[in-house]
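Quick note —
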Amino acid sequence: MRKLPGLALAGVLVLGGLTACAEEPGTADKGSGDGKGTGTVAFLMPDLASTRYEQYDAPLFKQKMKELCADCKVIYQNADSDASLQQQQANSAMAQGAKVLVLDPVDSESAATIVQTAQSQGIKVVAYDRPIPKKAADFYVSFDNEAIGQSIGQSLVDHLKETGAKGGILQVNGSPTDAAAGLIKTGIHKAVDPSGFELLAEYDTPDWSPEKAQQWVSGQIAQFRTDIAGVVAANDGTGGGSIAAFKAAEAKVPPVTGNDAELAAIQRIVSGDQYNTISKPIKIVAEAAAQVAWELMQGKTPKPTTTLFETPSQLYEPTVVTQQNLKDVIFGPDGVLKPADVCTSTYAAACQKLGIQ
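Predicted structure written out below.
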């Protein structure tokens, strides 16, 4: 894994103006593009707690596959945080003739069984978003998750120092069964541990659950209250849960981080409730995964840019978003959202202050 400084990430969010309705898990599309060849590929996503999979990853992946392969079929499934269900979905996809599984695992360790089963049948596996450390997939396409953790943590630390904040930091990590969450956690520690701010406590959030994050942070507020200078949350869901805990306790909300640039998080940044998030190049990553899947279906060998967990990999770099650059990153030509999406009546005045119209 290459080491990147916290705020020197050069990635660009290029989700475009896509607006996609979430499909019922388990639907399949048949391509209608101009590509040649046939085949079936499964796109197996891990959960519904993060809205990005239904709203962006799946539609973008299917759209690119249509462009690459007119007669290919995409089987889309979402396991809704159930590792056993994801195993069943993978088995079903293989039974339906999938030549490639694009797999974002619920449980990175148990997903090794899916890889083993697929490869024993000559089926290729592309690990997507989250790595599978115990069994090397044929390829891995993702964001630089360690850099994500380091960048959100460093962004928070720098802000706390600039504002002369006193106290310590709470660290709200992602799911303990998600290897990507482990990489984010490692990156956060690289920023927080040498910062001079005490790490008051940290928590691995089961299933990335905002509710469980809120419950844990509520307990920490009761214990530390005014000693909490900031909260490093590993994604927007756990960040939102953390913010909700402070509001429920009628305590001042300290700077809180996030990751994924979800609509609700962008609104919280606009209003000042959330300090930062991560803008990911989901369009680039989803399309790259489709390209890799298509090459594997044709018996070609995709070109990696690095190797992670003994798996040839392509890792893409995200961008930290705060109020300072939100307008350019989120609402620029390649932004994911339009001002009308964010600046509803509740947030109209705050948007105006930031020059967002």
